[in-house]
Amino acid sequence: MKKRFARKVKCVLMCAVVLCTAVFAVSCGGTNAVDEEGSATVSRMTLDEKLSQMIIPAIRTWNENEVTDLDEVPDLKEALKKHQYGGIILFAQNIKDTEQTVKLVSGLQANNLANEEASVHIPYLMPLDEEGGIVIRLTDGTRMTGNMAIGATGDAAEENALATGRIIGEELSALGFNADFAPVVDVNNNAANPVIGVRSFSDDPGTVAALGTSYMDGLAGMNIVASCKHFPGHGDTDVDSHIGTPTVEKTYEQLQQTELVPFETMIGHGVDMVMTAHITFPKIDDKVTYGDGTEGYYPATMSKKIITDILRGDLGYDGVVVTDALEMDAIMNAALVEGEPQSTEYMVNVAEKVINAGVDILLIPKDLKDAESAAFYDDYISGLEAKVEDGTIPEERIDESVERILKLKEKYGIEESAYSDNDIEEAIENAKSVVGSVEHHKDEMEIARGAITVLKNDGNTLPISKYADRVFLLGRVETDRTLVESTMSALKDEGVISPDTEVSFDYYIEPDPEGEKLHYTEEMAESIRNADVVIGMTQTYNTDVLAESSPMYQAVSKAINDVHEGGGRFVLLSCRLPYDAARFLDADAVVLAYLGAGMDIDPTAADGSSIGTGAYNANAAAALEVIAGKTASSGRLPVNIPEMNINSDGTVSYGDELLYKRGAGY
Q: Which pLDDT value is given to residue 123?
């Protein structure tokens, strides 16, 4: 794989050089702006156009219907043409299949170009949150293994990070996207982190820096703008900023030793975009008075000290800075400034702080989803215009940001990418040959096989093919059946396990509107007691699912006890955060896969008979191969796993002593 990737990357980088010299299609009254400085273009733009260029809205739905075909939502088309937005971000609601996505992206660029009232026509930045692993939008695409799995591949990790960026970048480019809000370069040095976790490469800052840089190079080789996130670091938090405001109690010197290392490295390597974090840093920042009269600290997104003084000053970064989504609760509902949270007044006041902090792009102040939200954007931009006109926001600050945005678009040769009727079919056919291709899935599987980590193997429990006549697969939910049964069937067909081996499946979580319910019947318990080996799958995403009251903890604990009662063995297949290895100490073997999504898609379908099979979970399939004995494990733990404390109320917390050290693995 190494030689093949090297040849591809060399070729792609040569193509990227050619693409970057392409004419930047910014037109004004039929004239070409290719020879004009960015500042000259900015000087011809109205204040509305400049402010709009700093905004990227989402268009998930319109009047509660998913937006998948722009021609079906004429009111949205008109709303988009009212302002010269810097770009549009799409989500899973917008992306159904390859053909539809090519048409939608092309249609958005064409609609933007058709704005007859604009004094300039500037192509959209079309970003996507396509990190790989648990965060993807391309349902027909190649999921890839996720960052922590890449970090587990040891000496091959940099090559695999480069390959991941290349594959994701190639698929994005084929669909018409030109930017990716990736890679995540947060250092996951807090085992209780509920939002980063396996999205991080490692808890070692040097490893994160190296792999983030390689991933970025892979995207750049496909002419896709990379965006490292979340500055100045979201790894040492225990609150999800989508639903609250995390605080990091670290000094600047401590940040310099850990969190800032990847960002500094990537800035030195020429990263073009940095995304901010909605996190407060009380030991670094200045105290402010919130809109409700209380005192506290602004999130980094709104902090001039963090964005201008540290990012731009100390780290010397002069590229584009984009916020994390401003619709997140850490901003929208936090009463940080004057005005009722979520109101136009409130969001304009937030934007004032964000822009004056030194940020260039306001990502999703609100979903553009109906006439009311379209009116919000009219008022939002008007409100920002008023702040510029009264000097609250200096116009020079606006011009500075717009120039950065235009230079970024020019550097990547971003054009409207609106296909003619003659070209659209060719573009669709090309995208179908690229997105979710058999070749990409093969490379994905090869990386996944290198990531699987065996942490424990007492009594030679692995491989199970040496002794197991009866295997019980304990999935988390019913849809896990698709991946595990198809993989085990393939292992039988290949002769890895005997065709006479009895393989059965059941699951332990029953969905319920009021919360997850335990599904563990006496029939399941009896089958488990009679099994030679039970493979129990976990998906740990926070400490709550490891508490004594959690259905997952109860089911896995029962299964361990039941199989041991019958004289069998238990293999813990950890499918997401590896820290649950510290919770189930009685497991006979522990295998780490680092990815829990995509279990409902059959990986054996990508056998050359079809293209665009779907974003399945290669990691869990590769882990089952190791458990069965088809392949040997070579993965190494990319994070430290601390011991786990059981609190008096049945909840859990992590201790100071390490149970498994980074680099562990058989």
A: 95
For residues 70 and 63, give the distance between their C-alpha atoms in angstroms, rounded to a whole number.
Answer: 13
Please report, for residues 23, 48, 55, 362, 402, the alpha-carbon distance to residue 384 in angstroms, rounded to integers and kept in the order given.
Answer: 32, 9, 11, 12, 15
* Cα–Cα distance measured from residue 305 to residue 312, given in angstroms and rounded to the nearest whole number: 10
Confidence of residue 224 (pLDDT cuts 50, 70, 90): very high
Which of 406, 429, 452 lies at the terminal end of a domain, its last residue? 429
Q: Is the per-residue pLDDT at 609 higher than 80?
A: no
Indicate the number of domains in the chain: 2
> Looking at residue 215, which CATH number applies to its domain?
3.20.20.300
For the stretch 344-354, pLDDT in tens is: 999 999 999 99
C-alpha dist (Å) from residue 604 to 171, 414, 621 = 21, 37, 9
Residue 47: CB atoms within 10 A of its CB come to 14
Tokens read off for 243: 């639903």
Which pLDDT value is given to residue 242?
61
Least confidently predicted of 299-303, 372-376, 416-420, 593-597: 416-420
Burial class (CB in 10 A: 0-12, 13-18, 19+), 287: exposed
Q: State both tokens at 114.
A: 């058709």
Confidence of residue 466 (pLDDT cuts 50, 70, 90): very high
The CA-based diameter of the chain, rounded to the nearest angstrom, is 81
Q: How many helices (H) and strands (E) does the chain have?
A: 21, 24
What domain range is 491 assigned to?
440-660
According to the model, what pLDDT value does residue 608 have?
Answer: 60
Q: Pick the catalytic residue: 121, 242, 269, 564?
A: 242
Assign 463 to helix, strand or coil. Answer: coil
Choosing from 324, 360, 480, 562, the catalytic residue is 324
- CA angle centred on 243, ends 239 and 249, rounded to 5°: 30
Of the three residues 372, 407, 429, the one that is the final residue of a domain is 429
Q: Which residue has the tokens 């584009």?
A: 320
Concerning whether 493 is annotated as a catalytic residue, the answer is no
242 is catalytic: yes
pTM above 0.70, yes or no: yes
Same domain assignment for residues 374 and 461: no
**Are residues 390 and 453 both part of a single domain?**
no
Q: What are the residue ranges of helices labelled H in 82-139?
A: 98-113
Residue range 656-666: mean pLDDT, rounded: 97
